[in-house]
Write a structure and sequence with these properties.
40% helix; single chain; 8 helices; globular; Arc Repressor Mutant, subunit A; alpha/beta; 5-stranded parallel sheet
Length: 232
C-alpha cells in the first residue's frame, strides 16, 4: 500500500477532514495545515510528496505560499495542486505561472482529487511514457534526460517545474509534429484535466524564457497549437 506523504494546506476544517479521510482511505499518509504559515513550517519539518494548497488562506495566501516554495531550491521540486473556490482563469494562470502543477476548483469531487494526486505521483515515479525507455532526447543544443528529469542547454542545467518538463518532453519526443493545446494537456495531465487554453500558453511562455535561445525551437502554429522544431 502506498505511503506517500501528502500535505493539505486548507483553512476550512470540514474540507481538510474530507480530503484527509479520502486520501488515507487510499493508503496515503496525510498531514494538515490550517494556514499558509503553518504549511510552510510543515514543509520545512518534512518534505511531502505532494502539496494540496488552498489559494484563499488567512495571512499568507496560497499564491504567496506557492511562490516561496518554488523559489526555495529544497522545495521547488514538490508538486503542488491548487485548490480554488473562485475557478477564475486569472487565479489559475497566476498559480501556474508560479510553478503549480495542477488545480482543482471547489466544490470538487474527492474521487477526481485523489485521481489527480495519484497521477502526479505516478508520473514522478515512472518517467517512461507509453512503455518506452527513458532514453535521453538530443535535439539541437538541448538534451533531455527523462530518467533524471534533467534538461541541459549547451551543457548547462535548466530548472523546470514538473509540468514544464512534461510539456517539453512531450513536444520534443515528436519533433515536427503539431499538437493542439488540448492534446498537450491530455498527454501531460490526463483527459480529465480541466484547463483553459491560456494556461497551456503560460507553460509555453515559461519554457521559452527558461530555455533562453533554445526556446525558439518551440514553435507556435497559429490557429492550431505548438510543435518542437525538427531542423534548424
Amino acid at each position: 500500500m502506498a505511503r506517500e506523504h501528502i500535505l493539505v494546506v486548507e483553512d476550512e476544517a470540514d474540507i481538510r477532514e474530507l480530503v484527509r479521510l479520502n486520501l488515507e482511505r487510499e493508503g496515503y499518509a496525510v498531514h494538515q495545515a490550517r494556514s499558509g504559515e503553518e504549511g510552510l513550517q510543515a514543509v520545512r519539518l518534512r518534505k511531502p510528496d505532494v502539496i494540496l494548497l488552498d489559494l484563499m488562506l488567512p495571512e499568507i495566501d496560497g499564491l504567496e505560499v506557492c511562490r516561496r516554495l518554488k523559489n526555495d531550491v529544497d522545495c521547488r521540486h514538490i508538486p503542488v495542486i491548487m485548490l480554488t473556490a473562485k475557478g477564475e482563469e486569472a487565479d489559475i494562470v497566476a498559480g501556474l505561472e508560479l510553478g503549480a502543477d495542477d488545480y482543482v476548483t471547489k466544490p470538487f469531487s474527492t474521487r477526481v482529487l485523489v485521481a489527480r494526486v495519484r497521477a502526479l505521483l505516478r508520473r514522478r515515479a515512472t518517467p517512461e511514457e507509453e512503455g518506452q525507455s527513458a532514453a535521453p532526447i538530443q535535439l539541437h543544443n538541448l538534451l533531455i534526460h527523462p530518467g533524471r528529469r534533467e534538461v541541459l542547454v549547451d551543457g548547462k542545467a535548466v530548472d523546470l517545474t514538473h509540468t514544464e518538463f512534461e510539456v517539453l518532453r512531450f513536444l520534443a519526443r515528436r519533433p515536427g509534429w503539431v499538437f493542439t493545446r488540448y492534446q498537450i494537456v491530455d498527454a501531460v495531465h490526463g483527459t480529465d484535466y480541466a484547463v483553459t487554453e491560456r494556461s497551456v500558453d503560460v507553460q509555453i511562455v515559461g519554457l521559452r524564457k527558461k530555455l533562453g535561445a533554445a526556446g525558439k525551437y518551440i514553435n507556435t502554429v497559429r490557429g492550431v497549437g505548438y510543435r518542437f522544431q525538427e531542423q534548424e
